[in-house]
Sequence to fold (339 residues):
Amino acid sequence: MSAGRDLQALLEGSAEIRQEDTSEISSHDRDIIEKWQDKIFTGWDFAGLPAAIALKNLVQNTVGYLYPTLVPVDEKAVRLTFERDLAKARILNREGMLLLFRLQFTDQCKSLKNYCATALSGPSSLWLLDRSRSQKQAANALLTFILGSLFSPLSGAIESQDCFGKTVSRVAKEGLFRKGQEICDKVMAVLRKRKEVADQLQRLVALDRQRRIFTRERQAELQSLIAAIVPADFLENGRYERLDDCDRYLRSLAVRIERLHANPAKDAIKEAQIKPHLENLSRISTGGTPSQELQVLIEEYRTLIEEYRISLFSPEIKTRLVVSAKKLEQHWQAVRQLS
Fold:
C-alpha cells in the first residue's frame, strides 16, 4: 500500500473541511508521516511519534488532525497508520495495543487460549454460539475479554513507553496465565448461572400448562431480563467489573421466578413499584444523543433500578447500593433537569 496515496486520501476525505478549503501538512510533518506510515511493530518502539499531526488550510487555520493508529496484522504484529477520525483511531488503538501487550506473553497466551476453548466446551456456553459464532470464535472472544481485563485501562491512544513497561511488569508479576484462569473461571460461573436461570424458567413454564402465570408476554419479559443481564455480545462489550453484579442479578431473578410461580399476585404488586422507572428509561432511549454528564446520570439511574429490583423481589440478596423509591425519584429528577 502506498503511503503517499494513503496520505492524499486522508487529506481529501474529510467532512470537517469545506470543499473550497485545501488541507495541507508541513514538509516536516510529511516527513514524520512517511517515516512511520505502514511500519510493523511487535513491541514498543514509538519514541518520537507525535500524538497528533495538525492539518491546516490555505490560511493556516487548523481544520483537523491525523492520529497515529495501530492496526493488528494477523495477530502477529501491528501496523502503524494514521486516521482522521479520532473515535475510529481510539477503537483501533485499543485493539492494536491489546495485541502488542499480548505479543509480550505469547506462550502464556497460547496456554490461556487452550484453557478458554476447553472451558467453552460445556453446555452452559452453547447459547454463545447462537450468533453464527463458531466455538473457535467464541474462545477468541473470551480470550480477548480476559486480556482486555488484565491490561486495562486501554485509553485508545498509543500508550507511553513508561505505561507500557509498567503494565507488562505488573501482568508478568501477577502471572498472566494464573490471573487469566481466574477471570475465565469467573466468566464461566456467570454463564452457568445464566443457563440455570433459563432452565429454571423453562421448567416452571412447563408446569404451568394452562399458561395462567407464564403467559407468552411474561415469558418474553423474563427471557429479555436474562438476556439483558448477560447479553449475547457480553464478551465483546461487557466488563470484568460487572461480573459480580451479573451474578447477583441472576440469583435475584431466579428467586423472583420461583416466587412468581408460587404467588403471581404478589409479584404483580412489586412489579407495579418498579414499572414507572422502567418507563422512564424507555423514554430516555427514544431521545437524542445525551451529553457525557447526562450519560453518567442515566447509567447511575439504570444501576439504581437494578439494585431496587433486587430489594423488591429478593431482599435476602444484598444490594450494592442503598436504594429506595425516594432515591430513585430524586435521581430521575436530576436526569430530567439535564435532558
In short: Residues 1-5, 14-22 have pLDDT under 50 and may be disordered. Strands lie at 40-41, 53-56, 62-73, 77-83. DSSP finds 13 helices and four strands in the chain. Residues 260 and 266 are 8 Å apart (CA to CA).
